[in-house]
Amino acid sequence: MAQAMFGAGCFWGVEATFKKVEGVTKTEVGYAGGGKDNPTYQEVCGDTTGHAEVVVVDFDAEVVSFADLLEVFWSCHNPTTLNRQGPDVGSQYRSVIFTFDDEQQTLAEKSKADQEASGRFKGPVVTAIEPVSSYWPAEDYHQNYFEKDGIGACPV
Prior knowledge:
The protein has five helices and eight strands.
C-alpha cells in the first residue's frame, strides 16, 4: 500500500471523489502544512493556522498509480485560483500536493508542468507541491461526510 495527500478545496468533496477511484483502499480528511499542533476545524477555517484541508489517500499501487491519482486531482478542482475553490475562500482551500518521498515530488512537479503546458487551464497553475511536514486528522464528523449526510457533492 502507498499513500498520497492532496488539498483541492473543501475536503468533503475531494474525499468523495477519491473514494470512487478503483485501487483506493481508504481515505481520511485532515489538516496539513500549518504551524499549530492538533488544530480544530474552527481554527483552520479562521485562516490563521496555515493548514490546508487535505485528503490522505491510501492506495494499491498495483491497481492505481500515483500518476493516475494526480490526474484525478487535476480534474476535481480549479488549480488556477489561489486560496479559493468556488465559493470557499482562504488558504485552507489552496491547491496543494503534499509528497511523501522524492519520487512523488518528481512525479508531481512533472505533472504540474505538463498541465501548464497543455493549455487545459485558462490561467497559470498555482498548485503548491510540498513535502509532508505535519498532518492532523480532522474531527470524526468530517470523515466520510457525504456518506453520513447523504449529500452528493460540494457546489464547486
